[in-house]
Design goal:
mainly alpha
Length: about 180
C-alpha cells in the first residue's frame, strides 16, 4: 500500500528495513532514563507517611545509587523537583505503569506471533479471554490464563532492539 504518490512505485525494501531498524536507535538510553524515573517515583512513595522531611538533593542521588541506576551519563527522565506526575494527578508510585503496559503489550503481541499471527481465531481467543472480561476478574489472572504464564520482559527488550530477536516457530504449537 505504501507507494510513491507520482510514480506508483512501492517503497524500496531497503528503505523499509532502514526505517524498521531506526526504531531501536537510542533505546538503551531511553529505557534507562525512564526506568530511573519510575524507580525514583517508587523510592519516594516507599517512605513512611511519618518519615522526616527529606532533602531532595540528598535523597534522589542516594535512592538512585541504592537502586543501582545512578548513571551520570543517563540521568532519570525527570528529576524530583519537576517530576509533576508523581506529586499530583494521581500517579503516586504509579509512573512505572507506562513501562509495565509495554511489557504486557509486547508479551501479548508475541503470543500472536507464536500462534500464527493476527488471525480471526487468535483475535477471538484474546477477545473472549481478556477484552470481554475486563473488570470481572483479576487482570493478572485473566492475562495468565490467556498467555499460559506470567508476562516476561524479553519481548519488550526484543522490540526495543535490546535483545536478539528469537526466530518464529516453524508452525504454531498445538493448543489444548
Amino acid at each position: 500500500y505504501a507507494k510513491h504518490f507520482k510514480t506508483g512505485q512501492p517503497v524500496p525494501r531497503e528503505l523499509v528495513e532502514k526505517i524498521k531498524k531506526s526504531r531501536s536507535f537510542d533505546q538503551g538510553y531511553k529505557t534507562t532514563e525512564y526506568l530511573a524515573a519510575a524507580l525514583l517515583d517508587m523510592a519516594w512513595h516507599d517512605l513512611a507517611a511519618d518519615s522526616p522531611l527529606q532533602d531532595v538533593n540528598v535523597f534522589e542521588p542516594a535512592a538512585l545509587k541504592r537502586l543501582q541506576i545512578a548513571l551520570e551519563t543517563v540521568p532519570p527522565r525527570y528529576h524530583t523537583s519537576y517530576f509533576a506526575h508523581i506529586w499530583g494527578g494521581g500517579y503516586a508510585a504509579g509512573y512505572y505503569a507506562y513501562l509495565w503496559s509495554e511489557v504486557l503489550d509486547d508479551d501479548a503481541y508475541y503470543w500472536f506471533k507464536e500462534h500464527g499471527g493476527m488471525t480471526r481465531a487468535n483475535g477471538q481467543r484474546f477477545r473472549e479471554m481478556v477484552l470481554s472480561r475486563g473488570g470481572t476478574e483479576d487482570a493478572a489472572a485473566l492475562y495468565r490464563a490467556f498467555r499460559g504464564r506470567d508476562p516476561i520482559v524479553e519481548p519488550l527488550l526484543q522490540e526495543r532492539g535490546l535483545a536478539p530477536a528469537k526466530p518464529a516457530p516453524a508452525k504454531p504449537p498445538e493448543r489444548k
